[in-house]
Amino acid sequence: EPFVADEYIERLAWRTPGGGSRGGEAFDPKRLLEEFVNHIQELQVMDERIQRKVEKLEQQCQKEAKEFAKKVQELQKSNQVAFQHFQELDEHISYVATKVCHLGDQLEGVNTPRQRAVEAQKLMKYFNEFLDGELKSDVFTNSEKIKEAADIIQKLHLIAQELPFDRFSEVKSKIASKYHDLECQLIQEFTSAQRRGEISRMREVAAVLLHFKGYSHCVDVYIKQCQEGAFLRNDVFEDAAILCQRVNKQVGEVFSNPETVLAKLIQNIFEVKLQSYVKDQLEEHRKSDAEQYLKNLYDLYTRTTNLSSKLMEFNLGTDKQTFLSKLIKSIFIFYLENYIEVEIGYLKSRSAMILQRYYDSKNHQKRSIGTGGIQDLKERIRQRTNLPLGPSIDTHGETFLSQEVVVNLLQETKQAFERCHRLSDPSDLPKNAFRIFSMLVDFLCTEHIDYALETGLAGIPSSDSKNANLYFLDVVHQANTIFHLFDKQFNDHLMPLISSSPKLSECLQKKKDIIEQMEVKLDMGIDRTLNCMIGQMKHILAAEQKKTDFKPEDENNVLIQYTNACVKVCGYVRKQVEKIRNSMDGKNVDTVLMELGVRFHRLIYEHLQQYSYSCMGGMLAICDVAEYRKCAKDFKIALVLQLFDTLHALCNLLVVAPDNLKQVCSGEQLANLDKNILHSFVQLRVDYRSARLARHFS
């Protein structure tokens, strides 16, 4: 542990008798001093002893260092001597090697012309046999020496090509004939060896054929035999991958240029097997079934590119990426040139069918929205002015929005985006993706959502209708859910395809325009729905509120509680508030509830202005407003609650004693109100005409 002087002194003092007051002992400074002095002497003795030991160790270390240095010097001298011997030996070896190389060059200079002369003599001998017309040499008659015969005939064939045709036409013909026979024999031998699986024999024959013109035919035979029995299953792509994997291991053991042979095999598979398979699969549905055709095209192209990715592992030469891309293009170019037209045509017909099937299931005939005609003109005037121009359209509670329809449209579009990503040329991808997006906007946003909004608007009754059923909030709720799904697909599937192209801004603007267009209709429908809610409240108040409620005939026999009209209005309002919360989300809920709350307050304010109030009637009005205020708390909007708090304070003016009117009017809640508003409420009192009340308020 690290040494700490203060702790050491403390422990020493604690151990010394009389060194402290612990345990009841008296403090004895002399004894403590004596202990310190003795301990210091002990430490000094210990220090001297340790110092002597250190000096002894230092002397020993210096002695050993001198001995080690002396030993190192001796080793360095030995190393220098050994290095000199090594240099001498290296010089001697270099001298001997130079002599040997010179001698070897001299021997090679003598031997090479001799070998050439011997080889030329042999070729002349064989040439004479062809010239005489009789092949006697064992190399031509013994089938086991076909390798040596091939080497000779190949050289003779080269020589014969240099000879004049008029003098040596016959011998040239014989040599060419033998050349062709041997070539055929070698190819036949290679074929037999391949069937027997003799790799070493195949390698020997291929090496001999490498210098013959028929070498490419040997490669063709090899490729053909490799594919025998390789495509027996239904999955031609998996069979091709397994075949290439097997050949890749073997081709390097047989041929001197394995990458060329393997590339030729792959080219043959693509241009023969795959092209034929793709054509059979696509032509079957190309004109009769667009959906199956697009699915097959996407599946086949995907499996072909996956196969290409597997083949990238093999050595196919320098630019294998370009090589494989050209092979894929050669198979699919005919189908990819007009792919997007087929895609758009299918998407259009499929989307129209989904929508029509839905409307048929509802027994609904789509009507033309805003296309002219007296009836449409009346409908639009009625919508905007609430004039009684005929009955509104009864939708029977149907929103004409279906999440199932939306999911089906989005699923079809999602698949179209996936196919577009895979099958479109990179330069055409943003343009094609935009066309698919435009189809989605047309059918989902315009033909389905916008139509439902227009129908919903037409189904909103006028504000003076009694017992009106308000279904537009259901339309709002479903449209909101659909917008979220639409936006998610836009971000997840369209954005990756257009994010780095000029089409991005075009798509964003199109999306913005369609959403703004629908928001205008949603706002219009919500505004008119709120008007209908207020209209319903007016009907309730008109039917249930009696003039005697606030000016009872018997003032002494009145039960202080809220009126029946108040109970029904509050019940209706609470249902509408709950419906608004269920139909919207986010800030939209607060915005709509605030608007409804303000209109609700204005209605109650104007309603209270219609009556005269006795003292007990004023108490009943206060009870009603208190209940309205409790209902306003359900809105959870500060402004609405504040408005009803102020209205409650105004109602106190109906019951307060005349002497206290000015004091109440100057209170916190009423001090900032216009004096005319205060006066209008005081005028509602039945005793307002009395000189005493008028004098106190003036």
Automatic annotation (TrEMBL):
Q: Has UniProt tagged this entry with the keyword Nuclease?
A: no
GO BP = exocytosis; Golgi to plasma membrane transport
Keyword annotations for this protein, in alphabetical order, are: Coiled coil, Exocytosis, Transport
Keyword flag Protein transport: no
Q: Where is the Exocyst complex component Sec10 N-terminal domain?
A: 29-137
Where do transmembrane segments lie in this chain?
A: none
A GO CC annotation given for this chain: exocyst
Query: In what residue span(s) does the Exocyst complex component Sec10-like alpha-helical bundle domain sit?
Result: 148-697
Provide the coiled-coil residue spans: 40-78
Q: Which protein family is it in? A: Belongs to the SEC10 family.
PANTHER family with a match to the protein in the record: EXOCYST COMPLEX COMPONENT 5, SEC10
Question: What protein name does the entry list?
Answer: Exocyst complex component 5
Q: According to the entry, what is the taxonomic lineage of the organism?
A: Eukaryota, Metazoa, Chordata, Craniata, Vertebrata
